[in-house]
Amino acid sequence: MTAPVLEVRNLTRDYTSSGGFLRPAKVVHAVKGVNFSLAKGRTLAVVGESGCGKSTLARMITLIDPPTAGEILIDGKPVDAGHVTHDMRQKVQIVFQNPYGSLNPRQKIGDVLAEPLLLNTKMPAAERRERAMAMLLKVGLGPEHFNRYPHMFSGGQRQRIAIARALMLNPSFLVLDEPVSALDLSVQAQILNLLKDLQDEFGLTYVFISHDLSVVRYIADEVMVMYFGDVVEHGSREDVFGNPQHSYTKTLFAATPKSDVESIRARIAKKAALAS
Ligand SMILES: Nc1ncnc2c1ncn2[C@@H]1O[C@H](COP(=O)(O)OP(=O)(O)OP(=O)(O)O)[C@@H](O)[C@H]1O
After folding, report:
1. Which of 65, 145, 178, 252: CA 20 to 30 A from 213?
2. What CATH code would you report for 39-67+79-91+171-276?
């Protein structure tokens, strides 16, 4: 049996604020003993209100922040949090809500895409260029975009560039941290559609962090609901949406009226169909 692409065991992260005069140090239990495993080609959505620990979880599984306790296994191999190897780091990529901040304004998009290959492989320049161009086309941009600068693109196009760059080194999985939250609904649909197409073509594995239930319902295979650092529910999309068990999940869903979810979902699906 193949190992899950990503497995976390008892993953925990505490933050300690330094105290002050008459103010004791305070510990925030941001993520409390989370367990899950994710098979290749699947999408796990992590949902919950602001402050529930989604970003902290994302930072741990992208190996940006070490856990306070617990274990992360990528492709069946345990990560040594105190000594994350270069190879291990390459296996995980993250796409943020607003990719503009991470794009060098003076770097042409072709170079943005080729850079991971330049930094991490001994590939000749001509091949790097060829791969960058191929990826540009895969994410729905054209050859004419290769020599343009980041400011010349729309928000949706920049998100395509961020996805393309994240895929240049064939990562084991992608963490998508609110990747469509800053986009218009029609553009959201195009990006979600693109993510689905890339997943089908390359067997990609996604951890999709979102507070938007309509988006989650559209993209996820599995849904994990977090509440104050705990996972209170984890199951298939059908089970979690169709028959939520935990009172918090029910409250969360009730806060977004079903008719809204359905109508937003229908609009996303329609736009996605038009965009394809
Ligand atoms: N660097 C930090 N130092 C101290 N506390 C932190 C730090 N980062 C996060 N926290 C706390 O940990 C808890 C979880 O925060 P986190 O950002 O992971 O939640 P979130 O669900 O991603 O929220 P949001 O959607 O608003 O980003 C919160 O109580 C937050 O205040």
Report:
1. 65
2. 3.40.50.300
Q: Which atom of ligand 1 is nearest to the CA of 31?
A: 14
Residue 48 alpha carbon, nearest atom of ligand 1:
21
What is the residue whose two structure tokens read 């195009």?
190
Tell the residue nearest (CA) to atom 7 of ligand 1: 15
Q: Rg for the chain (alpha carbons), in Å? A: 19
Decide whether any atom of ligand 1 lies within 6 Å of the 33 Cβ.
no
Q: Compute, in degrees rounded to 10, the torsion defined by CA atoms 225, 228, 231, 236.
A: 0
For the stretch 219-268, pLDDT in tens is: 999 999 999 999 999 999 999 999 999 999 998 888 765 545 555 566 66
Question: Which residue's CA lies nearest to atom 26 of ligand 1?
Answer: 50
14 lines ligand 1 (CB under 6 A): no
pLDDT, tens digit (0-9, with 9 covering 90-100), for 16-40: 987 777 778 889 999 999 999 999 9
Distance 3 CA to ligand 1 centre (A): 30
The answer to whether 88 and 74 have CB atoms below 8 angstroms apart is yes
Domain spans, the chain = 39-67+79-91+171-276, 99-170
CB–CB of 177/62 below 8 Å?
Answer: no
Give the separation between CA 13 and CA 31, rounded to whole angstroms. Answer: 5
